[in-house]
Amino acid sequence: MHKVVILSALLAVLAASPIAAQGPNSPSCPVGHDRLADVLKKSVKPSGGPSNGGIDNNEWAAVVNREGLVCAVAFSGNKTDDQWPGSRAIAAEKANTANAFSLPNKAIATANLYAQAQPGGYLFGTALSSPPNPTALYAGQPSEYGSAQDPLVGKTLGGIIVFGGGLALYDGNGVAGALGVSGDSACADHNVAWRVRHFLGLDKVPAGVSPNMKDAIIYDIGPDGKSTSGFGHPKCDGREDQIAVDLGAGVSSSAVR
Q1: What is the distance between the terminal CA atoms of the chain, rounded to a whole angstrom?
Q2: Which residues face 178 on adjacent strands?
Q3: Structure confidence at residue 23 (pLDDT)
């Protein structure tokens, strides 16, 4: 009798959980917390990884599935405030953005949205089109942020970010979801995201808007503030652009003609 009561209670909890509420036909999560945290730590210099330019901060990362539900949130430091607290939400919003603007046959990184989201561009105002859900953002206890029990998991946060750090995830069958990284310069965030996606094996990008037919960041904004390709991103203050080119994650202005 007691076993039946316990089992019934467990089933009720599972049915009420955000992940269970996705339903049997919902896309699965491409990455879980432990795998994301492990790869992120290996991709960020303060955790022993290679340089990505920027100011070598620790970072947050978030993954959403194709429906935009948050699958995992992780950080590279040893504790929550080893990285900018505000970047937890930005990472999830970057993931939401890359997922929302990428198709099975063409990827668009958040970095590719910058130029046309400026005044006069055809995407101007896009950043305000899907404000993040404050109920999801401020749910739960801060002590759970970045853990497997992060309160964002299983929820749709929304949000649109138009600078580097968000990439769609491709498993060879189409878009499996997206990744967002935040906590350093936008250019360094893009480099870290590129490394993380590669190590996850979810970088089978079929095509994109950059000259290399991927979703690389394009550094082609001139002194007049205009992007030659229309999908450009400004350079940051460090060596991020050079590192991106070496990684295959970026395209220099000389390559866009």
Answers
A1: 74
A2: 64, 168
A3: 40
